[in-house]
Specification:
55% helix, two-stranded antiparallel ribbon, mainly alpha, Four Helix Bundle (Hemerythrin (Met), subunit A), DinB/YfiT-like
């Protein structure tokens, strides 16, 4: 199973952008830096929570062709997917909320390495993503939003 070391690097980058959470650049994204930070943290935390609650015996290796393509390419295209409601940031994002989520994330990612290999979550486009693939997914997703943040701040 992949180590969470690289994911921790992305978490550190998220932390470094929190002071700039209010920045907006409509030419890059209609959402603020804070929106991308909040969304990224919500995705990491909700994925780990779902993995913990999953029943590994119900895991099906139904990883989609699209998932295999994006995992192989190593990126997600911009503006193509719509985030599920439960990982959408609130209308008003605060630094305090971002910091609280960040602390949860730092604790949660340590859980990944302790989970059954077939703990999983169901992705709307990619199918079941198990523990073996979850670090790759979280890194690709987080990096996708970090790239947008860097472009907003240019």
């Amino acid at each position: 199973m992949a180590s969470t070391k690289n994911l921790n690097n992305y978490i550190s980058q998220i932390e470094s952008y929190i002071p700039k959470y209010e920045y907006i650049n409509p030419k890059v994204s209609k959402s603020s830096v804070g929106w991308h930070l909040d969304h990224s943290l919500k995705v990491i935390n909700s994925v780990i929570d779902t993995l913990e609650k999953s029943n590994p015996e119900e895991y099906k290796n139904n990883f989609s062709f699209l998932g295999k393509v994006f995992f192989t390419l190593g990126f997600f295209p911009r503006g193509k997917a719509k985030a599920p409601k439960y990982v959408l940031p609130p209308e008003h994002i605060t630094k305090k909320d971002l910091l609280a989520q960040l602390e949860s994330t730092k604790t949660n990612i340590d859980v990944i390495e302790k989970l059954d290999n077939n703990a999983y979550f169901k992705h709307p486009l990619f199918g079941h993503i198990n523990t073996k693939r979850v670090n790759r997914f979280l890194m690709l997703h987080t990096n996708h939003h970090l790239k947008i943040i860097r472009d907003i701040l240019k």
